[in-house]
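Bug #77: duplicate submission created two jobs. Keeping one. Sequence:
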Amino acid sequence: MNTLNRSHSYLHAASLAVLAGLTLLPACSFRKPAPGQEVWAQVNDQPIYREQVEKLYKGRTAQGTDAATPEEAASFKLNILNELINNQILVMHASHSRVTASEAEIDTKVGELKSPYSQEEFQKKLQEQGLDNDALRRQIRDSIIITKLINKDIIAHIDVTDAEIASYYEKNKANFNVTETTYHIAQIQVTPRQDPEVRNLKNDDAKTPAAAEHKIQALYESLGHGAEFATVAQEYSEDPSTAAGGGDMGFIPASGLNAALKQVVNSLKVGQVSPPIRSNIGFHIFKLLGVEEAGQHTLTDLRVQGAIRQTLRNEKEQLLKAAYIEVLRNSYKVVNHLAEDVVKANGVPPHIG
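Kept job's structure:
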């Protein structure tokens, strides 16, 4: 994937992560463990429990990142624990900096998380993560507070100059040589059968061929009357992989298009919407969001400048975040009992340093 496409894909992935699930920034606000629970770390006098790490570890390994050996599992858990320590420090520092989250902000985020689910499904999701409604609100509060703190103390101070953009382009010119025409496409999909995986904001699912055909025509008419494509996709599209992102399918090279889709995109100008298209899956409405023609993209292209600027901002943000947290850690008393246990279990002398 070239640099020009990478920034768009990054933003698309971020939007999906916010809307598609209940996984938030790891925080130290799980349901309070029962007495006697093992403390794996402390930030000042604030404990972080083994249960918190194990729940996050279980959730992440369930997503396909299972460790192959006990050593890899222990390393993974140490990384998770370090995230929890850092987030606890950020929350504490935010309190000192008077950064807060309002109840209205928390309500809005809860509403976003709930919207694709029925009440029963949502409560089941919470239970699977060992959360109740109060614990979820505490997690969301911490997440909002940390985001605000990072925006205030880091994002607001990041600047990318024209000279930096020009230098990056010269060093990475090959990344802006598009080898084949690439299409940025979005879709609204409707299937003629009930699908338990459908996750749109209206929980709307056509269950029969007739209902699907009626629905796709109604959606097409609403677009013709000025409805926003991304909003309609979020509310009604039945493709679970793209609905939350407004139907965004990302950037697809010409060689990756089947004959039918290639015919559709070649009939559209950027910004135009196709009439309903029938496929073996169901019905689709496509929108051509953009086209990158094959060839060398120059620095005079505003999209090139924008992509480079975003890439450099991301790099600076990651560096500043890491340094910022390390500096903050110097002001807090951090004890990592899990790390101590790993060291002792492997025979390392206890008088390190």
